[in-house]
Amino acid sequence: MPEWLALYYREPLELTHGEGRHVWDAQGRRYLDFFGGILTTMTAHALPEVTKAVAEQAGRILHTSTLYLDRHMVELAERIAALSGIPDARVFFTTSGTEANDTALLLATSYRRSNQILAMRNSYHGRSFSAVGITGNSSWSPTSLSPLQTLYVHGGVRRAGPYAHLSDAGFTAACVADLKDMLGQTHGRVAALIAEPIQGVGGFTAPPDGLYAAFREVLAERGILWITDEVQTGWGRTGDHFWGWQAHAEHGPPDLLTFAKGIGNGMSIGGVVARAEVMNCLDANSISTFGGSPVTMAAGLANLTHLLEHDLQGNARRVGGLLIERLRAITAGFPVVREVRGRGLMTGIELVEHDGSPSPEGASLALELAREEGLLIGKGGREANVLRIAPPLSLTVAEAEEGATTLESVLRQVQFTIA
Ligand code: PLP
After folding, report:
1. Which of 365, 345, 371, 403 shows the shortest CA–CA distance to 30?
2. Could you tell me the CA-to-CA distances from 277 to 31, 87, 107, 273, 283 in Å, in that order?
3. Average pLDDT, integer, range 41-50
4. What does the subunit comment say (predicted)?
């Protein structure tokens, strides 16, 4: 196995097929998928409507390029624009979340005629040169030679540094004061702030209620745009809302919204939504060779239709709520578990050593043990010590129960090993 591949597990797992919330490996073992690819399988593995849409479109024409119209692309763009909550919205399709964020940066910096961007500490926005330049954690950002001038804002990492022991209100006030101070000390104008409503790779951490709304007020007064990165939090995953930004909606919709991952159910779709005046500020913004490719658009449309018709957002709220309650109950007496947190079907379990320090070893061990017991989960966090649970949104109560029982056994063993 090539060493440079960033694979989970000591012995890489080769998956051959999936169905519903399950996948199978090359040895025929079945796993309950509690990570949905990386939140890419949004509805279910091998969803018949998506498979049919892909096969039919592949049989007609594979690619037309964005020089020509494609019925699925137009319809999907219209539906996403209507769902986005952004007035007079326009949609531009890309092939990944990274490219979506790059496009959002291109638009925001051009519209505001500035290359200054605010990003959150502990953020993750992708792997391109500009996306790593707004990613606020050095382990995910291999260079600091960004084409952008990025200023990192507090609010992303609650427990680090001098903010560690503040109340929610105190933390929010301190972060807002810091933001204002930073803006007062900054030469030139800032184009935009980009933020994940819940930090994904950063360990499923959310700011306290009211923090983003307070930020928006400060930024809106200065004409600074708000970019919401919904690559992980979109499509109802957080249960209570269709988009993560809606949990912080006191000051209305964002100026730009980026999406990817789940909408294609595994097909490569990304995109950016923006008000028409922002989207149209570039003359040359209309070409992306593979963005909006007909096969992916057919898949996205079938997948979105299924999601809405089966109210999978409601399912994420109900089943996600039960799962988090169950996990909290199971882990209540486990010193290895610092916190179980999340919204909808986006749940993080933060692991610590007996002295309270982060436990990346515990998280790696938990992944291995879970796999042995037929459960696939993810990990992340600033210190790589958070288990990430984000199954397809069609998860059943019985499957949630099954996964929680496996995690109880896994965490018991982790506790025994690292304590
Ligand atoms: N933004 C967020 C919040 C992400 O979690 C990711 C990927 O994990 C990206 C952007 C980049 O998306 P992609 O891997 O499709 O380029």
Report:
1. 371
2. 47, 11, 10, 12, 12
3. 98
4. Homotetramer.
pLDDT digits (tens, 9 = 90+) for 316-337: 999 999 999 999 999 999 999 9
Q: Is the CB of 101 under 6 A from ligand 1?
A: yes
Does the beta carbon of 97 lie inside 6 Å of ligand 1? yes
The confidence score (pLDDT) of residue 2 equals 42
Q: Report the atom number in ligand 1 closest to the C-alpha of 127.
A: 16
Ligand 1 contact via 233 beta carbon (within 6 Å):
no
Mean of the per-residue pLDDT values of the chain: 93
Does 293 contact ligand 1 (Cβ within 6 A)?
Answer: no
* pLDDT tens digits, 117-171: 999 999 999 999 999 988 888 777 777 777 778 888 877 666 667 777 888 899 9
Q: Give 231 Cα–ligand 1 centroid separation in angstroms.
A: 6
Q: Is 200 in the pocket of ligand 1 (CB under 6 A)?
A: yes
Cα of 339 vs its chain's centroid, Å: 20
* Total H helices, total E strands in the chain: 12, 15
